[in-house]
Automatic annotation (TrEMBL):
Name used for this protein in its record: Acyl-CoA synthetase/AMP-acid ligase
Pfam families: ACAS_N, AMP-binding, AMP-binding_C
Family affiliation: Belongs to the ATP-dependent AMP-binding enzyme family.
Species lineage: Bacteria, Pseudomonadati, Pseudomonadota, Alphaproteobacteria, Hyphomicrobiales
Native source organism of the sequence: Mesorhizobium australicum (strain HAMBI 3006 / LMG 24608 / WSM2073)
Domain annotation AMP-binding enzyme C-terminal: ranges: 516-594
Nucleus as UniProt keyword: no
Signal peptide location: none
Amino acid sequence: MASRYHEIYDGWKRDPEKFWADAAGAIDWYSPWNRVFDATAGVYGRWFTGATCNTCYNALDRHVAGGRADQIALIYDSAITGTVKKFTYAELKREVVALTSVLKNRGVGKGDRVIIYMPMVAEAAIAMLACARIGAVHSVVFGGFASHELATRIDDAKPKLIISASCGLEPGRVVAYKPLLDKAIEMSRHKPDACLILQRDQLRCDLKDHFDIDYADAVARERAAGANVDCVPVLATDPLYIIYTSGTTGQPKGIVRDNGGHMVALKWTMENEFGVKPGEVFWAASDVGWVVGHSYIVYGPLLHGCTSILFEGKPIGTPDAGTYWRVIAEHGVVALFTAPTAFRAIKGQDPKGEFVPKYDLSKFRTLFLAGERADPETIKWAEQKLNVPVVDHWWQTETGSPMTINPAGLGLLPVKYGSPGVPMPGYDIRVLDDAGHEVPRGTLGNVVVKLPLPPGCLPTLWNADARFRQAYLDEFPGFYKTADAGMIDEDGYLYVMARTDDIINVAGHRLSTGAMEEVLAAHPDVAECAVVGIADAMKGQIPLGFVVLNAGVARDGAAIEKEVVALVRERIGPVAAFKTVVTIKRLPKTRSGKILRGTMQKIADKEAWMMPATIDDPAILDEITAALTERGIGV
């Protein structure tokens, strides 16, 4: 069919307020808005001001009342434990209500924060919905993060309660969460009132008297007592959650998501962008700790009345490279959303795609890839083996849903390899030079979005309006800075080429090299350091550390490098994939003292580079090249 994209996008451009008011008709509201968009509210304006609503009501209660009570809402599929558990909308609501009652009895109410530090279990989604039910603000912290990272988030969000589990499961190993959690609370200045702990059979933990609460016991008691907690009306502009993304200073940024605009945007994307209908099975193979898990494991599919899959496992090794096809076949998945890393891993293990024909994929229609740049070779491999459209798309934690995509629901446009598609309604994307002037089509520059941002995007950072302005709005007045570099072609397709700051993308996880440098610098023998992201065939990017040792250090350099790697793993977590440190005599700098990280990265990646005009001593780059060559990097 011919795509309706241009007609829909032009309609949004002509009358943005009418467009979003129409989209808001798909959501149930307690009371209507005073204004669709109030340009005088908040930092750059707020959506649906004055309206009241509840996200949990729209995700669960209205479906139970409206005929979906017996439809499966959530499928928990653990390839690691070999278990599958299904919840109908009515059953999921019952679980959420019981947990909500536990929270309420512990004094958690509207506006209070709750940190959720959980593995990929159904209870993680239930915890998010329970918070939403009473207007508490949840902040999910990825279960693989180390104590220091968790502590910074505890201090920023100041949670009343933390919901966690005894352990997380990785292929071949069990990760004990409780010691990490206890250490984080010990390190943090803010102390929560209590912790709710889900005991998992793979590794149970000791609970502290008068502080730790057994999740299963507490919920079972409320369920047995027939607890009932109604949804609490909140303002559309009230926060639903905080999600932390790496900040360039190492201090994480608390992205705020509101209730009203978030629901309107996600509900619209499910059918129009992902081409999925209510009642169908949608699978986002991500983690609830990341924005994809928030938007497309929990909220988007449930708001739309879909069946959502929450998967605990990996694309390979649990048990093999056919796991994804098993899940698709077993549960009748129509669309899968995952990171290109997953497909590079599958392709690496099964280059000929021999696992694919072993499964019935007849219901499977579309593969969506995002989280990092999807290389054309991976896309072509997936197209050939699966024989379905493969849709690359681009967005950020800050936006909550795609900025650009090839919209399956509106009718696919021609595919351009290397491009994550065209701008979606709400996004007037421009490319500017460093001085803020628009550049001609096909020219590389700073990718920005004309303000206001659409519903569902961050209105600000948690308790940090000034930091929000400084990080995103000040550099290009009137625009939101994505901190990505790219270009737009003659047909309006966007090409995203690179990050413009120090955030690197490791297997779809955005991590700050600045935060890693802080850890390196903490080692007693390290005088100076730099971390750059270098290309990696599997993960997209991995960090590479450079250290200059203090004068007079006589210890074995290799031993120090090992200690530094261990330090990053301890403080940032294994998710950083930090494995290589190279000791050098000195760092290349400009005369004003800025470290030339970009040039170091180019040398390590064997890219063409020019001698920076401002370099203090050109000979240093020869020293770095020699040090990398000795380690087999960039040769």
